[in-house]
Amino acid sequence: MTFLRNLCQRTLATNLRAYSVKAIIKKPPKILITGGLGQLGVECAKYLRRKYGQENVILSDIIQPSAEVVNDGPYIFADILDFKGLQKIVVDHRVDWLIHFSALLSAIGEQNVPLAVRVNIEGMHNVIELAKQYKLRIFVPSTIGAFGPDSPRNPTPNITVQRPRTIYGVSKVHAELLGEYYYHKFGLDFRCLRFPGVISSDPPGGGTTDYAIAIFHDILRKGHYQCYLKPDTRLPMMHVKDALQALSNFLEAPNELLNRRVYNVTSMSFTPEELAEKIIKYVPEFNITYQPDSRQDIADSWPQVFDDSEARRDWNWQPSVDLDNLVELMIKEVKEKIAANDC
Ligand code: VAH
């Protein structure tokens, strides 16, 4: 039986490429990204515009964009708490796919729980009802933060107990379950990936894994970094290149390949100590100190190693950036950002 199952998986997988090319040539999807000015939005828009065309990816948020963002492609105002406004956008721009990035992340959510409830939960209610009404394919990112201290931490499987201790985690478990319910009840094309900490040179957005980004900015600017997590705090991570690759491949995967609507994905796990050891190669004279704060409790309730075997099996997920590549890329990208800002 497993041989047969693997055989049809493999044939399906090879059809995957043919499928995606045929589908795209037919008519590229019109994509709306909400929460577009958060950590992932701008890079995600750039990535998808290379695949589907500049005008087919609309970036949106409630804040003023920079000139660079506006010059890169369509940018509009969209408030995920305004359902009527969202309906108008979907109709006026004939949207096919919705990528819902709007959310308060773990650390900042704990500082403003009522706002996190409004944005992360009421916002989710609006976009999922919108997607149902207009038959959109909807992608919602979830997180390692959707697990809690009762979940196995090493490794954390795709399906296990989920009792998170942050409002961010609670809102993402809610999003996962609501999405799966709308899929089973209404056939909604809901898709969700649980991301680890995503590392990019863009400033992080109030999360617990942000240290792995801030460390590069501080060390290259000041030669010193004070870490708010203990040196041996192990957390799953991935470079933004892998995050966008995973998001795009998953969005294109034919439904018949998907045995789940929610998948873990990851590239690696490391600790602040291990990351610092890699950075020494590029900045021999820097020093790091450790001053754990309330984010340590959040990190201690999260997975240490993420099991993404189901994503690899079902839709060929494969990361491409390991820790050495990640450090090399970040040193280069952050140096460029600092140089650009300073001139
Ligand atoms: C956070 N960066 O720390 C986010 C993410 C995986 C963690 O969800 O909150």
Low-confidence stretches: none
The count of strands amounts to 12
CATH topology of the domain at 103-342: Rossmann fold
Helix content: 40-55%
State the fourth-level CATH superfamily of the domain at 103-342: NAD(P)-binding Rossmann-like Domain
Average residue-wise pLDDT: 94
CATH architecture call of the domain at 103-342 = 3-Layer(aba) Sandwich
Distinct compounds present: (3R)-3-hydroxy-L-norvaline
The neighbouring-strand order within the major sheet is: 3-2-1-4-5-6-10
Walkthrough of the structure:
The chain is of the alpha/beta class and 343 residues long. The protein has a domain of 240 residues: Rossmann fold. The protein has 13 helices and twelve strands. The strands form three sheets. Strands 3-2-1-4-5-6-10 form a seven-stranded parallel sheet, sandwiched between helices. It has a three-stranded mixed sheet with strand order 7-9-11. Helix 2 links the parallel strand 1 and strand 2. Helix 6 runs parallel beside helix 7, helix 8 runs parallel beside helix 10 and helix 8 crosses helix 13. The longest helix has 25 residues. The N and C termini lie far apart (63 Å). The mean pLDDT is 94.
